[in-house]
Amino acid sequence: MDNVSVRQDMRDFLKLENKLEKKLSEHHCSVLASILLMSPEVQDELDMEKYNTSVEGRQLLVQAVRNCRKARFTDCGLSVTHLAVIASALKSNPSHLTELDLSGNHLQDSVAVKLLSAGLKSPNCRLETLRLKHCMLSDTDFDSLVSVLKSNPFHLKHLDLSGNNLQDSGVKKLCGFLESPHCSLETLRLQSCCLSQISCDSLASALRSNPSHLKHLDLSGKELQDSAVKQLSGFLESPRCRLETLILWGCRFEATGGDALVSALKSNPSRLKHLELNFYNGLQDSGVKKLCGFLESPHCSLETLRLRSCSLSESSSYCLASALRSNHSHLRLLDLSFNSLQYSAVRQLCGILESPHCRLETLELVSCSLSESSCDAFNSTLSYRPYNLKHLNLCNSHLQDSAVKKLSGFRESPNCRLETLDWFDM
Predict the structure, then answer these.
(1) Looking at CB atoms within 10 Å, which of 108, 234, 304, 386 has the fewest?
(2) What are the angstrom distances between the C-alpha of 317 and each of 87, 277, 307, 324, 345?
(3) How many CB atoms lie within 10 A of CB 70?
(4) What is the mean pLDDT of each run of 10 residues along the chain (426 residues)?
(5) Buried b (16+ CB within 10 A) or exposed e, 306-331
(6) Which pTM value belongs to this model?
(7) Continuous segment of H or E residues that includes residue 246
């Protein structure tokens, strides 16, 4: 089959593929995989979620991975045979694959993990992103996998191991990978990994020893003791730290840990762009006030701030809104959901929106128990001038009919720039 025929067949099948109402048969998937493999052009992406077909049909498409840059096989029930095909793609010369998502596939078979490890270890492997969320990796398999990453650390930039029950031995090897002078990892996600205190301490220490590359860190769902928080704070304080995103949802630690964390942010504020905390993070009024000091810094360039369920008092709410008002030119998204915001704090938020320097595009206030006076303040502010705000979420705030009517009237105004306005109770 010549190149012209291949391109024509690809056009015909891709038209069929893009009709989501048309379910692809297993035969279609097999033929499509062959066409993709024979294409003279490397395909940008193979995403199984985009195909309207059966599990068996998606599995037939796996063979096309050899001619793709990105492959997403989430919840595909991959077998050892499929892993062998993927490993072959990683080892091929040249290997085109730079992004691989195997999330939701239970890699409990040691043979499957050995095949994947062999692919990752290959000198031809150029993988930059590896996602293994909820893969139920065993202790032995995780040890083997991380050892391979350590032996070939040059290309990997993004690693997601969320939802795996990592043991101390595996985390120790992961730390060895992070400490390698050749490691250039930029994203590390360990959400809900049930790390022990020993593992948390080791991980924070490893990040502190080699902080220059990491930009995105997600440690959500960890039981961080003060010792681990202090190690993490040392990492954040390092002048070599380049972290841009820090996510600590559900990370339980004491008020002293929260104070140490915020002090570290304040001491080195220029890099961080996205910060997500919640009430487990030991942010009492003292911690919020220190956080305000970080927000007020002229070097603070935060673009996203999420403080959900932080039990903000009236005093800390007022302090937070005042701090954002004093230095908010970078902030694009503010999420204060599940905090009972008093009218004084809402008025301060309106003051932020009224400023000509405000760049806020998204404001999330879900379940904030807003009074009618607070809604009137928002309505008055937004009616006066729409500013840059595009998304306003007031869901589950139990708004009175009069407040809803005013907000609806504002939405219909020709001056309204909002793209989404939500106030419904779920």
Answers:
(1) 108
(2) 52, 15, 11, 11, 6
(3) 18
(4) 51 53 79 88 90 86 94 91 94 95 86 91 94 88 84 88 85 87 91 82 85 88 75 85 89 74 82 83 69 86 89 80 78 90 84 82 89 81 73 82 70 74 75
(5) bbbbbebbeebbbbbbbbbbebbeeb
(6) 0.87
(7) strand 245-247
